[in-house]
Write the C-alpha cells for this entry.
Amino acid sequence: MIYNPNERVRPVNIEDEMRESYINYAMSVIMARALPDVRDGLKPVQRRIIYVMHDLGLGPGRAFRKCAKIVGDALGKLHPHGDSSVYDALVRMAQDFSLRYPLVDGQGNFGSVDGDPAAAYRYTEARMTRVTEAVLTDIDKETVDFIPNFDGTEQEPTVLPSAVPNLLVNGSSGIAVGMSTNIPPHNLGETIDATIAMINNPAITVEELMKYLPGPDFPTGAYICGRRGLHKAYSTGRGHLIIRAAATIETAKGLKASIVVNQIPYQVNKARLIEEIAGLVQKKKIEGISDIRDESDKDGLRVVIDLKRGENAEVVLNQLYKHTRMQVTFGIILLAIDSGRPVYMTLPQLLGCFIDHRREVIIRRTRFLLDKAEKRAHILEGLRVAIRNIDEVIQIIRKAKDPDVARVRLMKRFNFTEIQAKAILEMRLQRLTNLEREKLDSEYNQLLKDIDEYRQILDSPARVMKMMTEELLEIKRRFGDPRRTVIVDAVDDLEVEDLIAEENMVITISHTGYIKRIATSTYRQQRRGGRGVTAMSTKETDFVEQLFVASTHHYILFFSNFGKAYWLKVYEIPQGGRAARGKAIVNLLQLEQGEKIEAFVPVVEFDDKHFLVMVSAKGVIKKTNLSAFSNPRRNGIIALSLDKGDELLEVAMSDGDSEVVIATKEGKAIRFHERDVRVMGRNARGVRAMTLKDSDRVIGMELCREDVTLLTVSENGFGKRTALSEYRKIRRGGQGVINIQMSERNGRSVGILTVYDEDELMIITEKGIAIRQPVADIRTISRNTQGVRLIRLDPNDRVMAVAKVREEDTEEDTEASPEDS
C-alpha cells in the first residue's frame, strides 16, 4: 500500500464497524420495510401505494388504471426499492383470500388460492376500494404529518388517518431482522365493537374484550379449534391456534361417501393440499380414498374426496386433519411499530393505540376546520361591512390610483385587516344582489355555530370520544359483514362422534369373524312367518352368528368367549350394504387365536351407578361396576376369570336392582334377584347362577323389567312369548323350571329376549337370512308349551340369533304369511 500524505486515514475496529453497520441495516428493515405501524396497520410500501393511488385520483368510483402506472409513480416518487416489492404488495392488497377486507380493487389476474402468480403489472389494472377511502378519510385536513420523500422532491404521509382499525381487521405478516410479526385478520364489526367497549371502559380486561372480539376471522373461513391460544396471544402478544378446514360428508347411492371440503385454512395452497393428499394415498399412509377432484368455481371452493365403498368417512377425515394441511397451526405474534420502535402488544394495547390515533386525528381535523371556519368568518365579517357601506367602498376604490392604494384606504377607513381588504377588492358585483347578501349572512351565521361547535369539541374530551364512537359505528354499518371463521372447542376436546348423526345401527358378526354396521332402516318390516331379506353375504362355510343394535354415539364393550373385554365405538365399525360381507374383526380388535366375540354392551358413559352382569356357558355369574371397564387396553382386559372348558356367554348392564332370567339350551330357565350376586372385582371368577346337567349349557340371560314378556326362540324357527309371572323367583344356583318344550319340531333353544308389544324383532339364520317382524304378532302363551312358527326356513338352515329393533317409521309388507302353528 502506497501512503498518500493528503489522505486522512482513521483506524477503525472492524467489530465496532460491523456492529454499527448491522444495527443501522436492521433498524432500516424493521422501521422502513417489514413491520406495520400500529396506528394504520400498514407497512411503508403499502402506505405509499395507497397514497399514490389517492394522488392519481383512483377512487372506487373512478376508472381503473394500469398497475404499471401505480408501481412507476410509487417508485419514482416515494419508494426507493425494487418494482417487484411494490407490485407484490399491491397484488396482496387486492387478493380477497389474503386480506379480509381488500384495500385494492383489481382487474385482471391477481393470483389464486392455488398459488398461481399474478399477471405482470403491464396487464393488470387497479383502483381503491371503499374501505381504502375510509383509511384515507380526512387526509387533506392536516390530520397527519407529512415528511419529504427520499430525494426531497415530494411529500409523503408518515401515517394514514384510518378510520378503520386496519391492523386487526386485515392483519399483517413480515420478517424483519431478529424479529417477525404475524397478526391474523379479524371481523370488522367485532373489532369495532371491542374498540367501542374499550372507549367506554379504558380498563377493560382481555376476557371482557373477547366477548366482543372472540378471535380471528380469516378470509378463507374454516374452523379455529380452541380458545386457550387466543387468550394467551391477546394477553401476552404471542400464542398459537389450530385452524381446520371446513368439510362435510355426503353419501351417494350404494353407501359410497365423499368428503367435501368447502373452506381451507388461511394461507394454505389448495393445489398443493390436493397434491399432498394424493401423495399420502399413494404411500398408503391414508387408506380408503378412491378419487380426488377439484370442483372449485366462481361460486366458491369445493374439493371432493371420494371414498371407497364401506369406508368410515369420519375416520378418513380425521386422518386428513392429522396428516395434511387441512389442519395447521397459526402462530400469532402481535408485533408492530409504536412511537418509532417495535413493540410486542396485547389486545388492549393494540386497541388503545388505535383509539389514541383516532383521538389525535379528530382533534387535528377539528382544529383544521376551526381555523378554516374562523378565517372564512373573518372574511365574511369584512364583506358584510363593505356591503352595508357599498357606496362609500365604491367611491374609495374609484378614487384610488391602484389596488394597493385602495386596499390601504379601505383598511384605514373601516379598520379592515389586509385579508379582509383584499377579499373586498376581489368581490364580484353579483354579491351586491339581495339574494347574495342573504347567502352571506346565512353562511356567516352558520360559521359562527360551527366555530362554537368546534371549540366545544376541543374543550371536551368526552365529545371527541363520542364522535369517534359514532364514526366507528358508521364504518361498521357500511362495511360490517358476518363472521366467516367458526370458533369451536379445542381439538383435544372434539370427538369424532360430534360429526356423526345419531342413528341406530344393526351390527352383524359372522362365525368366521366379519363385522359391519348398517342402518336399521335398511330392513323393511314383515309379518310373522315371512321369508325375510338377506342381512349379510357369507361364504358357503360361514354363517351369521351375532346380531346387535346400538347407536352410532355409543361405546361398545366387546366380550369374548375367553372372558376378555375390548373397547370400541360404533362409528369405528365399517359400514356396509345390506348384503355386504363386512370386514374381519381381527383388523379392529386384537383377538387371540380361537377367541370369538360373544356379547356386546352399548355404553353412553362409564359410571359407578351401573353394573355389568356376566354369565358363562356353564352357569357362572358375576357382577362388576361399569366404571371398571372405562379404560381397556388395546389387547383387551380380563372381564371374567373362567374355569377350564368354560366360556363367557352373555353380558348385560343393570342398575343394581334388577331380576335375572337365565335360560338353557335344553329348555330350562331360572329367575332370581341380582342382589343374590355380590359386586366383585374385574378379575374375579364369579359364583354359580344355575345348576346344569353335563349335556346342557346356558343360551341367554335377560334382566327382567315391568310388564315385559319372555320371548324364547328355537333353532327350527319356532318361538313363544310367556309372562314372567309364570317363572317363580327362587335363589340363584337352582335347576330352574321348564321354559319351552323340547321336541323334534322345535329343536333346541337358541335365544331368549324380554320384549314389549311395541318391540320389533330381527331374527337371523346360519345362511344369512334375516326377518324383521313386530312382537305383537307373536301371541303370549303359557310357559310349558312349544310355541308358533316365527320364520320359515330352507332345508338345512337354522336360527342362530335374535335381537330387538325399535323404530317407528318402517316400510310395512302388506302380504302377511299365514300363521303355521
In short: Confidence is low (pLDDT under 50) at residues 806-821. The first strand starts at residue 65 and ends at 66. DSSP finds 17 helices and 41 strands in the chain.
